[in-house]
Amino acid sequence: MLLFLFMRKTILAFFILCFNIASAQELFVFTEPASNMAARSIGIRMNTMFMKNVHMDRNEVFVIPEIMWGVSRNIMIHADVFFNNDDKNFKAKGASLYLKYRFLSKDDIHNHFRLAAFGRYSKNNGFIHDGSIDMYKTNTGYEGGLIATKLINRVAISASSSYVHAFDNGKYSLGDDFRNAVNYSLSLGTLLFPKEYTSYDQPNLNFMIEMLGQNTLGNNKQYFLDLAPSLQLILKSRMRIDVGYRFQVIDKIYRAMPKTVLVRFEYNLFNVY
Amino acid sequence: MKRIFSIVIFLAFLNVANAQIKSANLQASGLTCSMCSRAIFKAIKTLEFVDKVEANIKNSSFDITFKPGTKIDLDMIKNKVEGAGFFVAAFSAKINFDGQLIKNDGHTTIDKNVFHFLNVKDQSLTGEHTIKILDKGFVTAKEYKKNSKYTSMECYKTGVAGACCAKHGLAKGTRIFHVTI
Predict the structure, then answer these.
(1) Nearest to A200 among B32, B34, B85 (CB)
(2) DSSP summary character for residue B136
(3) Which of A96, A180, B148, B179 suits a disulfide with A122, CB 3.0-4.6 Å?
(4) Is this complex scored with an ipTM above 0.90?
(5) Cα separations (Å) of A116 from A76, A100, A102, A162, B37?
(6) Do residues A192 and A21 touch, judged by C-beta distance below 8 A?
(7) Cβ contact B31:B19 at 8 Å
(8) CB contact under 8 A, B57 and A234
(9) Helices marked H in A112-267 — which ranges?
(10) Which residues in chain B have Cβ-Cβ distances shorter than 8 Å to A108?
(11) A92-121 pLDDT per residue, tens
(12) Which among B29, B34, B41 has CB closest to A108?
């Protein structure tokens, strides 16, 4: 109950903040918006996630180097490799390929509505931590879904929903009741600084809050819901530093790693070819 | 020497007789962040005929100066904005006119580009004037619809010369920019 009240207050405070500040952002930290990166551009990311494995009582680190490519104005691709120390040896455990297709754009001055479809294929030989499925860290399988992003003057809101199907991770098998799930997310973002843009060299500071959930589709019908506030610093209009904290609000899957601290560095190269 | 002199005179005459597109200003839609603005800025800068780009991040607008004597392709600028993931909401170009006669709902060729003037009085233009492009992709969808009342010619819909333009001696398929002052 207390937690619920806290959440309500946080969300209310966030909305008040959004409507009072100059502009909004949609470069979300834990999800992707329906917008794509610029065509002919390349982005390089280094993601590091720090987690505590409560089942094993040990700390885990995921390091995910990622390359992003704006193929055309409507298509972008991400390729990433997952490094992890889950078996005490820090090494590459898997990789994934992500594709996003923006199929609708309704733009106006300082606002837009966009729809995109996305898909991800992941291969992972790492240890299966629990019954939750995560194609961006721990599982082998595929995911496909839709994203809708709306920018209304000062607030960016994005929602997504996807279907996930997981296979076994090599020698590590997954219970059949946990193979299929639905993911959903709701993200809100706003610009804290600067109040007014004057140059590309001005640092930007963004605040985001995201809700991330998963419902398994097996006989057991389990689910979790996480909340993830984050801060994002953009330097020289091309470099991004994200720091986010993701924590569970509801967990019926009994996950091994209910909390995550994410640190991301991103560098964008425009018009590479 | 006499020959060089006459070439110089001839070139000078050409220069005077031709109206030139000097610069353009565009406003992009759908963005609020400086990283998005930078993506557009960088994309426009790659165009060979572009000399200088100045961005106003707050208004998402860009002042573009062209290299004199180059073939200016206004569609390429629009494509660059769209390639960066955004759209053009307003596009105007500064032109140095040299006595060109413009007619309402008629075609005029300026700097190798064909312009179809809408909602203007028939007049002869001299000196610097700003024209606003009204074609699909150069204005918001709402404005494009609103301006359709100024012409019944099909080239407004297609952006290229059709049967409607044959009377003005334009070959079918010629790119036509619909503009106003």
Answers:
(1) B34
(2) B
(3) A96
(4) no
(5) 11, 7, 4, 12, 21
(6) yes
(7) no
(8) no
(9) none
(10) 29-30, 89, 140
(11) 999 999 999 999 998 887 788 999 999 999
(12) B29
In angstroms, what CA-CA distances link A41 with A29, A32, A73, A235? 19, 17, 10, 17
* Residue A85 CB neighbour total at 10 angstroms: 15
Among B136, B138, B122, which Cα is nearest to B88's?
A: B138
How far is Cα A148 from Cα A140, in angstroms, rounded to an integer?
Answer: 26
**Cβ-nearest to A25 among B33, B45, B140:** B33
Kindly state the helix (H) or strand (E) to which residue B106 belongs, with its residue range: strand B106-110
pTM: 0.83
- Say yes or no for a CB contact (<8 Å) between B57 and A199: yes
Residue of B26, B31, B32 to mutate for A, most A C-beta atoms under 10 A? B32
- Is B152 within 8 Å of chain A by CB? no
Question: Running DSSP on this structure, what letter comes out for residue A270?
Answer: -
Task: Indicate yes or no: CB of B34 within 8 angstroms of CB of A204.
Answer: yes
Per-residue pLDDT band for A18 (boundaries 50, 70, 90) equals very low
State phi, psi for A211 to the nearest 5 degrees: -110, 130
B16 membership: H or E segment, kind and range: helix B2-17
- For residue B115, the one-letter residue type is F
Q: A58-65 contacts: CB < 8 A, separation 24 or more?
A: A60/A84, A60/A85, A60/A86, A60/A257, A61/A85, A61/A90, A62/A137, A63/A90, A64/A136, A64/A137
Task: Determine whether the interchain pair B32/A36 forms a contact, defined as Cβ–Cβ distance below 8 Å.
Answer: no
Asked if the model's pLDDT at residue B8 lies above 50, the reply is no
